[in-house]
Amino acid sequence: MMLSLLKSLLRSAAILLLVSFATFCLMFGNGTGIARAILGYQATETDVQRKVVDLGLDRPLLVQFGDWLVNAVTGNLGESFFTGQTVTSALSTRVPVTLTLVILTLIFTLILSVLLGVAAAVYGGWLDKVLQFVSVLGAAVPPFIIAIALVFMFAISIRAFPATGYVSPDRSFSGWILSVTLPVVALLIGSVASAASQFRGAVLDALSKDFVRTLRARGLKESHVIFRHVLRNAGGPGLTVLSLQTLGLLGGAIFVEQVMALPGMGQMANQSAQQGDVPMVMGTVVVTIIIVLVVNFLGDLANSVLNPKARTR
Amino acid sequence: MTIPILQVENLVVTYTGRGGLSKKVIDNVSLELNAGETLSLVGESGSGKTTIGRAILGLAPVTEGSIKFRGDTISNISRSQRRKVARGIQVVFQDPYSSLNPSMTVEDILVEPMAAAGATGGRQRVRELLDSVGLPGDSGSRYPKEFSGGQRQRIAIARALALDPSVIICDEPTSALDVTTQARVLTLFKELQEKTGVAYLFISHDLGVVNSISNRIAVLYQGSVVEIGEANQVARAPRHDYTRSLQMAAPVADPKKQRERRAARLQFLAAENAAESPRGASAQL
Amino acid sequence: MSAEASMIETEAEVPAAGRSVLRRLLTNPQGITCIAFLLLVILFGVLSPLLAPYQPNQADLNAVNAQPFSEGHLFGADRAGRDILSQLMWGTNGTLQGSLLVLAIAVLLGVTTGLLSGFYRGKFEAVAGFITDLIMSLPSIVLLIALFALTGPNVMVAMAVFGVLVAPTYYRLVRSVVLSVRTELYIDAAKVVGLSDQRIIGRHVLWAVRAPVVIQSSFVAAAGIAIQAGVEFLGLGDPEQPSWGGILQNANSNIYNNRFGVLWPALLISLTILALVLLGNVLRDVLQSSAHNKTLKRSRRRALLNEAQSARTTSSPARSEEAFLSIRGLKVGYPDGPDHVRTVVHGVDLDVRRGEIHGLVGESGSGKSQMAFSTLGILPKEALILGGSIYLEGEDLLADDKALKNARGRRIGYIPQEPMSNLDPSFTIGAQLVYGLRAVKKISDKQAKAQLIALLTRVGIRNPENVMRLYPHEISGGMAQRVLICGAVAGDPDLIVADEPTTALDVTVQAEVLELLRELSTERGLAMILVTHNLGVVADLCDTVSVMKNGRIVERNDVESLFSDPKQDYTKVLLESSRSVELMEA
Question: C319: which of C41, C89, C438, C567 is 20 to 30 A away, CA to CA?
């Protein structure tokens, strides 16, 4: 088990390195382009060339990447071309906002999709039909449209929640709750919709197993059969669903941040990209991938605890 | 005596499992199949009986040794060379559900081997084949799922016959069937042999089934042949202890005789345990 | 021959051929609605030069923030006075081209690599698998944003990249389909007749891959439209070109001045995506499942069950007083359409005395397993007990759900056919045995363990303490069957229902298990219903036999008489077939 976890750790590190390198090459490959974007289109050719040398963009890419990597390992991801702010400090205020949204949504997704998935699989009937319909609808409508609809209904028409902005929890807890409610709900709808229907499938699959029949025949209470045996066996596939969900949520968060003007990572990435602020974009890409890899690793870890076959392997 | 149509010489098959550990599934097996005869391979799960069949068909790797058909080596040959052998060696698998492509009509299934071999015959041949396995002539336009298990197995047999092979490998062809269907399919096998003179390598776990169809029987245990001989001798008066334990473990459909057999088995096991035979211990799981 | 030939089922469903798929798609209300809507959207785009009331980006200063349904502006106008309807029409082509580009790239990359990986495996599969994992752990939208820093506003490049990013979904789908097809025996059969790899792929593999790819494409097209609108919504599109996402972004930033501006683009984007997703679901139904709907209407189901229950309370048929278990008129059916039920057990009677081992013998489809499952109340969810009673010492288990639950494990034990799949893979042998025992006996964990260790030793397991700590995949099939037998007798039942308990075992292990069952029955005075297709097993173990055919018992007798003097033709045929492959000693 330790060996397989070590392997998955090494694999994650390799992926991180590879993707960083590929992104770096793409982003920093065109030095003059970057300099021109910073200086604007009226700048002279010599100004641009000077800027390229200033920023060290004239060096071979591999050298630039090596530099970036050495710094990155010590926690220095460079600084913004425009504001001079270090990327790390910009991220340190942005990452918590996005992570708050994603983690809160994940927690609620877990709770709701397990409840709904089990209920729909076990009781079937109208509950199942409603869930299936709602999950198609919820998963089909993109998160930014859900977010706009929520703002439209609860912030503009009813004025129950703030339409935009983020309040830090250490400033006002109730304000924080109010400010994250709409964005979390916007993310949650799509996320629960797909997770619950996939979890329903996993539960149905586990319910159809032969051993469930044997356990019933042995006199076990139905609640024990479902909550101890079926749930445990549906857990593995369920976890995979959740860890895939994280990737989708990170993407969704970017849109929701845009609609509700939340100062998160996605907004930072978007603004920086439109300005051509390459180090900031690079920083957000790396951090996002680290988050995804950490979640995948936690998923592997949990799976190896849940699945005895993976453990003894 | 003429040379055997199929010769397996010192066959070894090794599979590499997880972690690079290799496992010898077949250990130095030699067999000869004569034209027109039925030789059976009998053994329990893990005995390697199916692997030998697959090795002959080119579906399992031959690690050592050789397989010869009409004197020519056919182990480890290319797919295009295999196509030439295909006319001579065909197969009927155990599972009549997985062995027929559900999306093809019976006619397409039967034409496939002929097309692969570049042979002609077409519709007329399909009718002949269906007729020879006792299916109605208009079955060609139907799909496999319209047929019962026994009928599907007949289609599989017809496919095996399509190229007029001289050897058919029968891999547990009746163990997925009901007992009455099994009896009918076994009879069909015998009829076809009389008519066409095809030789069968018949693979089964059931000594009784094997006895009813074979000329000779080879008993496999953990990848090796422990006993080989004339069918009646092996099935009714086995010389090897393992064959005896197989024979005595098979229940008879007659309460009185079964009581005797049971008593004999217990006696045999007691004697074997007294002799502290390692075989007796390993048979317990 | 004729016996089997006559068994051809005429009503069986033929796999959907091309034309009938289209017909079923078009006659499905959901399918035709989705297709009609999507066609409308395509026309909307293609005909925009002819139909659009205004040119792209044509501003009408008198119409700034015009409300919907105002003169000349059906959907209203934006803050620059551009007609929203016209803008949406002009933006449609870009959306359609974008999603086609995504589809083309993803299918081309994903399907070919998936086919090669699945069919040839080896190094190619390892490399492709790693790249797939890598791509699938990339947050696509973040990458598309990063891409903007490089290329500037170029939606088509972004969509091409997105096509690469979603290609792994095709790769995984196709690879898994190919892997499962590869193990089908018909592929082996094709290899044996010497078919080349290209022909095997073309003939057998591609056919299996086709339907899943078509279904997946509908979902990927939907994702493509969503991501394209999203990218444009973030402001990464070309501001000169009208686009769905761009119009939405404009309207959203202007939401306080013109509330309903967001409505039209939001609706158009959502409905188009929804139509594609629903179309995918319809395609899945049409391509992958048979058209024959086998669920019974709820009202009909309830009526049938009530009927059976009221018949039970009004008439109580004569039952054998000495029998421990007495089944009367048991009728079991399965749904076969919204109003139809196919009966598989037609009113069967069966009596089992204390300590009697009763063989229930028959071929597949005879209904013998249905009888066994009914006795324990463990029939599949969709099955219906259409009538009859099962008396356990005079108490009708079918009339009283509580009595049935109390009987399970305590008075009736169950031994299944397939040892491996009947143990929960996630729990140790010890844990699942202890849960089972403590569900029926009020004892402590420690007592349960002690009892089970003794019982495991009894069923022939050496070193039971050790085995209790193992997981099911760590023990052999024979051992697993002994564990299941231990689980069945642990609650001290008086009756064991054994469903083909030795069919999955090797013949030498079968003999040992039969021996064990006989010993347990004698020691504990256990009665047994032994369901089997093997007459040898019946001869070995049973006191009495019932022969079943097509859901009815055709003959019943004590074991000696039935084997020496069968009365019914069917029994004779069974015995004859069985004896034709019998092993007689020399």
Answer: C567
CB C200 within 8 Å of CB C192: no
For residue C96, give the amino acid letter. Answer: L
Cβ within 8 Å, pair B253-C192: no
3-class DSSP state of B25: strand
Query: In the numeric block, which tokens belong to residue B220?
Result: 């496999």
Phi, psi (rounded to 5 degrees) for B168: -120, 125
**Cα dist. B217→A1, B66, B155, C210 in Å?**
46, 21, 27, 45
Pick the residue of C234, C279, C418 with the most A CBs within 10 A to test the interface with A by mutation. Answer: C234
Exposure string of C48-69, with b = 16+ CB inside 10 Å and e = fewer, is: beeebebebeebeeebebbebe
> Phi, psi at residue A104, to the nearest 5°?
-55, -45
Residue of C nearest to B163 (CA): C193
Q: Give kind and range of the element (H or E) at residue B33.
A: strand B22-33
Structure ipTM: 0.89
Whose tokens are 């593999």? That residue is: C205
Do residues C294 and C343 lie in contact, with contact meaning Cβ atoms separated by under 8 Å? no
Phi, psi for residue C197 in degrees, rounded to 5: -55, -45
Torsions phi, psi for C463 (to 5 deg):
55, 55
Q: Which two tokens stand for residue C242?
A: 């009208």
**Do A247 and C137 touch, CB atoms closer than 8 A?**
yes
Q: Judged by CB atoms within 8 Å, which residues 36-95 of A form the interface with C?
A: none
pTM: 0.86
Q: Is A7 on the interface with C (CB under 8 A)?
A: no
Tell me the Cα Rg of chain A: 24
The single residue listed with the structure tokens 């982003």 is A27
Record: contact C192-B237, CB cut-off 8 A:
no
Of C136, C270, C491, the CB nearest to A219: C491
3-state SS string for chain A: CHHHHHHHHHHHHHHHHHHHHHHHHHHHCCHHHHHHHHHCCCCCHHHHHHHHHHCCCCCCHHHHHHHHHHHHHCCCCCECCCCCCEHHHHHHHHHHHHHHHHHHHHHHHHHHHHHHHHHHHHHCHHHHHHHHHHHHHHHHCCHHHHHHHHHHHHHHHCCCCCCCCCCCCCCCHHHHHHHHHHHHHHHHHHHHHHHHHHHHHHHHHHHCCHHHHHHHHCCCCHHHHHHHHHHHHHHHHHHHHHHHHHHHHHHHHHHHHHHCCCCCHHHHHHHHHHHCCHHHHHHHHHHHHHHHHHHHHHHHHHHHHHCHHHHHC
A39 or B265, greater pLDDT: B265
Do A144 and C424 make contact, defined as CB atoms within 8 angstroms? Answer: no
pLDDT, residue C481, reads 95
- Short-list C131, C143, C128, CA closest to A15: C131
Q: Tell me which chains share at least 3 CB pairs under 8 Å with chain A.
A: C
* CA distance, residue C296 to nearest chain A CA (Å): 12
| Nearest CA-CA partner of B35 in B203, B157, B167, B160 | B167
pLDDT digits 0-9 by tens, A123-149: 888 888 888 888 888 888 999 999 999
- Check whether B91 has a pLDDT greater than 90: yes
Tens digit of each residue's pLDDT (9 = 90 or more) over C250-280: 888 888 888 888 889 999 999 999 999 999 9
pLDDT in tens, B103-133: 899 999 999 988 888 777 678 889 999 999 9
Query: Can you name the residues that pair with A78 across neighbouring β-strands?
Result: none
Are C541 and B231 in contact by the 8 Å Cβ rule? The answer is no
Q: How far is CA C171 from the centre of its chain?
A: 22
Beta strands at C384-392 and C325-335: parallel, antiparallel or unpaired: antiparallel
Please judge whether C537 and B251 are an interchain contact, meaning their C-beta atoms are less than 8 angstroms apart: yes
User: Which residues of chain B neighbour C192 with C-beta distances below 8 Å?
Assistant: 57-59, 86, 89-91
B202 pLDDT exceeds 80?
Answer: yes
**A266 contacts C142? CB cut-off 8 A:** yes
